[in-house]
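Progress note, project year one: complex with pyridoxal-5'-phosphate.
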Amino acid sequence: MFETLPDPKLDGIIALMQAFADDPRMGKIDLGVGVYRDTSGRTPVMAAVKAAEARIVEEQESKSYLSLAGDAAFLETMRDLLLGDAVPSARVAAVGTPGGTSAVRQLCELIRLARPEATVWVSEQTWPNHVPLIRAARLDMRPYRYLDRDAGALDRAGMMADLEQVAAGDVVLLHGCCHNPTGVDLSLQDWAEIAALLERRGAVPFVDMAYQGFGEGLDADAGGLRHLAARVPEMLLSGSCSKNFGLYRERVGIAMAIVPEGERGRLAGTLAGLNRQVFAFPPDHGGRVVSTILGDPGLRVMWRQELDAMRERVAENRRGLADALREATGSDRFGFIAGQQGMFSLLPLEPAQIETLRAEHGIYMLGDGRVNMAGLNEASVPVLAQAMAGVLR
Ligand SMILES: Cc1ncc(COP(=O)(O)O)c(C=O)c1O
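Model obtained:
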């Protein structure tokens, strides 16, 4: 029965990971896959996570099934972390999911159930996996302009002009912070203008938050989505604990629908039903680690300090690379790197230049020029800057 299946397309990021692993050169530099790395290139288990895991192992008495929505303490502490007091809890329907990826997918399925004719608008560059996740739910998709590539900044006029085209009932996907892959974030003023536009057009925002704490700080990073949630009647929100808790392989995510109070129960039941169809119960261990940390003042402080240090390291790499490129190229055209947020930037390089960096210098980045800033350190920043100056000459 399987002979009719086409050959699967290899995912670009996975293929790059494999090519990097197979490269025997010493000093190769991995700026591909989007995981945080410390100065020695490791992705360590956070100390707060280890402490929470030890407590769970000691105290947990059962691993029997919980509810289809997952652990109530996880849902509550995550609602708090993401939304603060922007909306009353009676407006928030939430379920746990295996990672932020499944949260996006489940919310797309929710859109499909509620309004199959809706178009989902995505920023012109977006996390590559958004596209297959939306398509898998058989939803129409349209791009809106986002990045002014030469300036490394928001194409504000283009974005707003495109969003004027959304129809009532359409869905607009926004990155909560640390836009992947551009590193270009919306200001609070932009969020306020988008909120007003979506309200006027009768469209529904869908915020995907995968890097809370990696931009300016936990609360500052959520400022835009909180403004939106407080303002619009309906909103979708997906969250991931992969990066800010370093729980990548534990698969910890949350899918939320923020709705008028009377509709919360129906939405919570529908989301639980969608979980039932795919994986039934969300994984528990990682979510329990998160709620243990967030619910304990001591562990929370420890975690925040570790997260602050990760954020600062990435910001330092950004400043270092911008300075090194200024020196190596004699121009300020890469100054934008220092001002962007989060782990990623999209470098304005041609495919042939990206290939030369890989072939001649062992520097691996995605085919569109996306680099993971956390993959750099003091030693590799000048190597990258010199190599880039070379291919740009
Ligand atoms: C924008 C965005 N959304 C969601 C995710 C989902 O991450 P995960 O499924 O590992 O929680 C990612 C991960 O790279 C991301 O960049």
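The pocket of pyridoxal-5'-phosphate is lined by residues 34, 99-101, 127, 175, 180, 208, 210, 240, 242, 248, 253 (CB under 6 Å).
The domain at 49-298 is CATH 3.40.640.10 (Aspartate Aminotransferase; domain 2).
No further modelling is planned for this target in the current period.
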